[in-house]
Write a structure and sequence with these properties.
- The protein is mainly alpha-helical and 488 residues long.
- The protein has a domain of 224 residues.
- It has a two-stranded antiparallel ribbon.
- A hairpin with an 8-residue loop joins β1 and β2.
Length: 488
């Protein structure tokens, strides 16, 4: 069996070789992220048989948990590591031609480090390294948001930095409090002891930790940084922030709630918070005329939907929520990547400037349309199975409050369809306006968009292939007792 540590060590090592490779060979350095993510994807596939037999626990330095550092590679962690590698690979292919100016070595190095941080969050088994990997992810993100060097990007990066620093401080304080209470930072060890402690004692560290993680997850009201950051960053980075970074933040929230604390009293509150985040995100997206800000607010809405699915806490809704993680990664990635060249061709981020692009850029417009339909949840796209499982599971769970919240979820889906239809209408059913660049998306970008469209259609047509593994991942998330038993 391959060592899961390689999922972190090899890409991190490659990241620091990028400046050297660029100095020696020039533009060959742009292929390093492709190689790093391809390596991780192959490794994740090779780990599947072992992980399905039982979680793979890696003890670093020879220290047996709860002492020392350990990686916990269960179905859920491997699912996220594989999703990060696959999305990171496709976006790095897109970046081959999309990122042409600026300090290219810096871009590719930070891009790899961002993905290493995200992978580390997915696989770590202790809270201190959760914080360390989050810092790697966040610091790389701050720099990449400002990569274009314009005023908007710099301002957005500073806003993100300030709010992210507050979130990081809250997370660190919460971790420190937990260490003071339990005398350990190992997640499984804390989960084993949490029932022996008065629940009131855990309230303050829980608030600090969820508040800190909620900033990166873009959960309302801690998401003010997101619209500016996503709209100002290069479109490739917008795709990573939306499809990977904030999802990893939500993954960490779920790990804390289900695995570490296991406090079921939180679930109804989180369901409310999820639907509130969904409502605010979709209403703000509907009000936008700037396409990247519309997509940014849409990401907030999707995070709210997934949070609601996880908080309902049935096997069906959690599986649907994990399916929606996949759909959002692929669909929102496709939307941002296609929007990047639509904006480049039209010369503007305004939706009105995209009129007639369906004829001028047919492949790119088709990619945006497929991403839109999938995110709304129309069959036969990848968004339909996930939303269907979420709604079905919530209604089966029952209860007046959950049923009302589910009705609001369906209402938000209609609102989501309305603002995406407005863009599709501009692309195909409005007369084009002159201006912008005459360049079409180059081959690398076209390959990336076609790959994402194929993945979306394949998952929509054959959801059962993904559902089998996602059920295992859902059981891994909800099985705190099994987690403790496998680690300690």
């Amino acid at each position: 069996m391959v060592n899961p540590v390689l999922l972190l060590a090899v890409p991190m090592g490659l990241a620091f070789t990028v400046p050297v490779i660029e100095r020696i060979t020039g533009r060959v350095s742009r292929w390093v992220p492709v190689a790093a993510m391809l390596f991780n994807l192959v490794l994740c596939v090779r780990l599947i048989p072992a992980v399905l037999e039982g979680p793979v626990i890696v003890q670093l330095g020879g220290f047996v948990p709860p002492f020392g550092i350990n990686l916990y590679v269960g179905p859920l962690g491997l699912f996220f590591a594989g999703l990060i590698a696959l999305a990171g690979l496709v976006i790095s292919v897109y970046s081959l031609t999309y990122i042409r100016t600026g300090p290219l070595a810096r871009y590719h190095m930070l891009y790899i480090l961002l993905l290493v941080g995200a992978t580390g969050v997915a696989l770590t088994g202790d809270l201190f390294n959760l914080f360390v990997f989050f810092e790697i992810l966040c610091i790389s993100s701050y720099a990449l948001v400002a990569y274009n060097g314009d005023r908007a990007g710099l301002e957005s990066s500073v806003k993100y930095l300030i709010q992210g620093s507050v979130g990081s401080s809250m997370l660190l304080v919460g971790i420190g409090m937990l260490y003071g209470i339990f005398g350990t930072l190992n997640m499984a060890d804390i989960a084993r002891s949490v029932g022996m402690v008065d629940q009131g004692v855990l309230f303050v560290p829980l608030i600090f930790m969820l508040g800190g993680l909620g900033v990166e997850a873009a959960i309302f009201p801690m998401n003010a940084w997101l619209p500016d950051a996503h709209s100002s960053a290069p479109s490739s980075i917008s795709a990573v922030l939306s499809g990977i970074a904030i999802e990893v933040g939500l993954y960490a929230v779920a790990r804390m709630v289900f695995t570490v604390f296991g406090i079921s009293d939180l679930f109804l509150f989180l369901a409310f918070l999820g639907v509130l985040t969904l409502l605010i995100g979709e209403m703000c997206a509907f009000a936008q005329s700037n396409i990247k800000r519309m997509l940014a607010y849409s990401s907030i809405g999707q995070i709210g939907l997934i949070l609601f699915a996880l908080a309902v806490a049935s096997g069906v809704t959690v599986t649907g929520g994990l399916f929606q993680f996949v759909n959002h990664t692929f669909s929102k990635g496709l939307l941002f990547l296609s929007a990047g060249y639509l904006i480049y061709r039209s010369g503007s981020m305004e939706i009105s400037s995209l009129q007639g692009m369906g004829r001028r850029m047919p492949l790119t417009s088709l990619a945006f349309t497929v991403g839109s339909f999938s995110l709304v949840g129309l069959p036969p796209f990848a968004g339909f199975p996930g939303k269907f499982l979420i709604v079905r599971g919530a209604l089966e769970r029952g209860g007046t409050v959950i049923v009302v919240l589910t009705g609001l979820v369906l209402l938000c889906t209609i609102l989501e369809g309305a603002y995406f239809f407005r863009v599709v209408q501009a692309l195909y059913f409005r007369e084009g306006i002159s201006g912008g660049s005459g360049e079409r998306a180059p081959a690398a970008a076209a390959v990336a968009m076609i790959l994402l469209m194929m993945l979306i259609l394949a998952l929509g047509a054959y959801p059962q292939f993904a559902e089998t593994f996602l059920r295992s991942a859902a059981s891994d998330l909800m099985g705190a007792v099994e987690h403790v038993g496998s680690v300690l």
